[in-house]
Specification:
The complex is a heterodimer of chains A (about 375) and B (about 350). Chain A is about 30% helix and about 20% strand. Chain A is of the alpha/beta class and about 375 residues long. Chain B is an alpha/beta fold.
């Protein structure tokens, strides 16, 4: 088997982006996945050990579907980085809100992430209208560890000519909702469509902050985008309730509210519209809904766990096994949410409990 | 109905779970006399008798029924009115069904002392003389906040257990089977279930792993009713296996990789909780490092099961870590009724004593 591509080389990375963003049929997808798997198998020791345990090597691989996926948890326990001798340009840290221990995604360069983050949003039709972007996150400068802030920063730069005033509304750890409302009011008067993007918990904080204020009537073509969960960051609100409240307070239709499904361990994102919309991945990423007991894809209409295959994730691992529950549909998948803790543990102690209690060592 | 009559009914209904002699010993150990609830007894020249709580509110955990059965048995022995808050609908229904089956199996005079609730009746909770609760620390805090100062509150919050193999290189097949029994009983879900097997340095892991794996498989095969492996459980088990593979840890897996049990040698001696459901970690630690390895769970270790003899030095270390029970491997899940629970006396903590001058 020939040597794998060297994804440390800038020309290889440029060519890779060109291929990902170009037309990709099934055969091409399989070929690209095999190439990337070959590289990561060679470069990431922990991944190689996992693959060997599953009996999968680049020589034996016949389909991208058989590429072993690393548990998301592994990013919290070891380094998954394909460029051991070269320092990463970016390290994105997961929130760690579930177990208290963050995971880390190392990128040699942000070039590929930037390209697919912008193109993925464009192909999802997020930028179909000229909108002024508002982000309920810190800026990438303030939060260099945040892949979400980085992505919004890429959008900001990509849209600068069209939308010259994108703003990040978390500064020094504080939401600036009052200023945001002032700007939005001006933009509404000017009939300028806007987009407001943030995590679900940031929108809950916004709803709480504006609880006594009248709704805003966002101009036609405006949209909202929410991502991520709540745990430990705000009161928890069901998705349908959150969307209903957002639709009311911004006078937008349910269809104008997007969900972005991504994670720090990946480079690509899936998007869905409205409360019950299906998620769609860009052409360079795929999702299988799998049964953890068999490792195989479940049938249409059945529930399983989301397994990502992301060809843009060159610098760590392309296949990621999440604990996110989804229903497989004929057209894609419907995200249900994070798998609940296995079952009631009663008086038995879990990792989460230890973190939560922060039990102190004995003297 | 006297205590002796209640004891008799309970022992007849569940002779294996609540043997008559153990119930008698429990009453004698904790109340001094089987009849202490029914008549005056004389102790040290003073007439005394015990008064049982009128109402005991039992709040059951959703993981296991056995703790609820035992709690209820205590309340029945005392002759109290026993209000049982069943595990909620969000929990797996297995424990709830098993608690209800236990209550149904009681003879009518005892059953009449029990009532069940699906939701927490806060009014009744505040009227109870004693509250016995099982669950998470957060649940204990929440319940405690709803009680008055003069209500007795017996809280069984988070705890875990572990096994210590004193001479793992000489572990007999019988001892290996004993470990497997402790691990797989109740699908490892209780606080008496070991989450790790600790061994001293110079352990031959090849031989030990093989022996334990054989025992685990035999134990699993012998289970009449094998625990379910729904998607959520399968996900945690396969995640633990894949993480171990990737980290280069040694694994022993069942034939055809079924999900009944998983044995992982983690070279890090520091305790980490298992995802349960038959996933058990082997950890090697020098006795001098045990304190550090278990520091994160100090005060939360219920039981140390021992295969072989526990050296006095190690016993002292475990004692300083707050361990409340030591027992032989194969007995972890079946403590005698007379043993303390989380360091407390199960009956004596509930009663109120009345003293009287002999001449009164």
């Amino acid at each position: 088997m020939p040597l794998p591509r060297d994804f440390a080389q800038p020309p290889v990375r440029r060519d890779w982006v060109r291929q990902l963003l170009g037309p990709v049929n099934e055969a091409k997808w399989n070929e690209l996945a095999r190439d990337l798997f070959h590289w990561q198998f060679a470069q990431v020791p922990a991944y190689r050990r996992l693959c060997l345990a599953h009996g999968v090597t680049p020589e034996k691989l016949t389909s991208w579907r058989d590429i072993p996926a690393v548990p998301q948890q592994l990013f919290k326990q070891t380094l998954l980085y394909a460029h051991d001798s070269e320092p990463p340009a970016a390290i994105y840290v997961t929130s760690g809100t579930t177990t208290g221990q963050p995971g880390r995604q190392h990128l040699l360069k942000t070039d590929i992430y930037r390209a697919v983050a912008v193109e993925g949003a464009r192909r999802a039709q997020l930028f179909a209208h000229d909108v002024d972007l508002h982000f309920l996150t810190p800026s990438p400068t303030e939060a260099s560890y945040s892949s979400l802030s980085a992505m919004f920063g890429f959008w900001q730069k990509a849209r600068r000519q069209i939308s010259p005033r994108p703003q990040f509304w978390v500064r020094n750890g504080h939401f600036e909702f009052t200023k945001l409302r002032e700007i939005l009011t001006t933009q509404i008067q000017a009939r300028q469509p806007v987009a407001i993007c943030g995590t679900a918990f940031s929108f809950v904080h916004l709803l709480d902050a504006w609880a006594g204020l009248p709704p805003l009537r966002l101009p036609r073509g405006s949209w909202l985008l929410e991502t991520g969960g709540f745990k430990g960051r705000s009161r928890e609100v069901s998705k349908s309730e959150l969307y209903a409240q957002l639709a009311r307070i911004f006078s937008v239709r349910d269809h104008a509210i997007w969900n972005e499904y991504g994670m720090s361990e990946l480079s690509s994102q899936a998007y869905a519209r409205g409360t019950s919309g299906l998620h769609h991945t860009p052409p360079w990423a795929r999702v299988l809904v799998c049964d953890p007991a068999t490792g195989r894809e479940v049938g249409v209409g059945k529930q399983g766990l989301v397994r990502w295959f992301d060809l843009a994730n060159t610098d760590s691992v392309l296949a990621l096994q999440t604990l996110d529950l989804a229903e497989r549909t004929a057209q894609g998948f419907r995200l249900i949410g994070r798998l609940p803790r296995t079952e009631p543990r009663g008086c038995s102690l879990s990792a989460e409990d230890i973190q939560a209690r922060n039990l102190s060592p004995t003297p | 109905m006297t205590t002796r009559q209640r004891l008799d009914l309970l022992a007849r209904a569940h002779p294996r779970l609540f043997p008559r002699t153990e119930l008698q010993r429990l009453l004698r150990d904790q109340l001094g006399d089987i009849d202490a609830l029914d008549k005056w007894i004389v102790r040290n020249g003073v007439r005394i008798r015990a008064r049982a709580p009128k109402i005991i509110y039992h709040i059951c955990a959703g993981n296991l029924a056995v703790s609820a059965w035992t709690s209820l048995a205590h309340g029945l022995l005392l002759g109290s009115r026993n209000v049982v808050k069943l595990p909620g609908h969000r929990d797996d229904s297995t424990a709830r069904n098993e608690i209800l089956a236990f209550i149904r199996s009681l003879p009518a005079p005892l059953r009449n002392l029990v009532e069940t609730h699906r939701t927490l009746d806060t009014g009744l909770l505040r009227r109870a003389d004693a509250v016995i609760a099982f669950g998470s620390d957060a649940a204990m805090d929440s319940i405690h906040q709803q009680l008055c100062w003069d209500q007795k509150f017996i809280a069984h919050g988070h705890a875990l257990s572990l096994l210590w193999l004193n001479d793992p290189n000489q572990l007999t097949n019988r001892q290996a089977r004993a470990c497997a029994l402790d691990v797989l009983t109740y699908d490892q879900l209780g606080c008496l279930s070991p989450q790790a097997i600790y061994v001293p340095p110079a352990t031959d892991f090849d031989a030990l792993g093989r022996k334990l794996a054989n025992a685990l498989e035999a134990q699993w095969r012998g289970l009449k009713k094998k625990p379910a492996r729904p998607l959520s459980v399968a996900a945690r088990i396969t995640e633990a296996r894949d993480v171990a593979h990737a980290l280069g840890h040694r694994l022993w897996l069942p034939p055809k990789n079924h999900l009944g049990w998983t044995l992982i040698h983690d070279p890090d001696p520091a305790f980490q909780p298992s995802p349960l459901h038959g996933v058990i970690y082997l950890r090697q630690v020098a006795p001098s490092r045990v304190q550090t390895a278990l520091a994160s769970v100090a005060g939360r270790i219920s039981t140390v099961g021992v295969a072989g003899r526990l050296p006095a030095r190690l016993e002292n270390i475990f004692l300083s870590l707050g361990v409340t029970r030591f027992c032989a491997a194969d007995r972890m899940q079946f403590p005698p009724l007379t043993w303390h629970h989380d360091g407390r006396t199960s009956l004596a903590d509930l009663v109120t004593w009345i003293d009287a001058d002999p001449s009164a």
